[in-house]
Amino acid sequence: VQLQASGGGSVQPWDSLRLSCAASGRSFSSYDMGWFRQPPGKEREFAAAISWLAANTYYADSVRGRFTISRDNAKNTVYLQMNSLEPEDTAVYYCAAGSNRFPLAMSRGDYDYWGQGTQVTVSS
C-alpha cells in the first residue's frame, strides 16, 4: 500500500488542523493505521493509532484529549484531527500502515508502510 499524507501547515497556538492520509491499493481496510511525528532534532514518536475497522483507537499521552484519529475505508483515507495545538506539537507528521494487532501497535517497527510526511508548525 502507498500512503500520501497532506494537510500540514503553519498555525498559531490553540488553532486546529486536520491531516489526511490517502492510501492506494484495495487492501487499505485490512490494515491498522497510525500517525507518528518527528519533532525537530528528536526521534520519531507515536501519536495515535486506529484499528482496521475503527473499533479501537489509542493515543499518546501528549495528544490524548486534543487529537482524534479516524478513518473512512470507503475513501481509503485516515485522518488526524488536531485541536488546541501547542508549540510542542511542531513536527513532521507521518502516517503508517501495519498488520492487525491487539492492543494497537505503538512501535515504529510494527508498521510496514509509511507516507512521506507533512510539516506542522505551531508558533505565535
Quick structural gist:
This protein is mainly beta.
Report on this structure.
- There is one protein chain.
- By secondary structure, the protein is mostly beta strands.
- It has strands spanning about 1-5, 10, 15-25, 30-40, 45-50, 55-60, 65-70, 75-80, 90-100, 115, 120.
- A hairpin with a 6-residue loop joins β4 (about 30-40) and β5 (about 45-50).
Topology:
Blueprint: E1 2-6, E2 9-11, E3 17-24, E4 32-38, E5 45-50, E6 57-59, E7 67-72, E8 77-82, E9 91-98, E10 113-114, E11 118-122
The oligomeric state is: single chain
Question: Helical residue percent?
Answer: under 10%
Outline: globular
Low-confidence stretches: none
SS class: mainly beta
C-alpha-based Rg, rounded: 13 Å
Mean pLDDT: 96
Distance N to C terminus: 37 Å
- Element pattern in H and E: EEEEEEEEEEE
Tally of alpha and pi helices = 0
The share of residues in extended strands comes to over 45%
Describe the largest sheet.
7 strands, mixed
What is the number of strand segments? Answer: 11
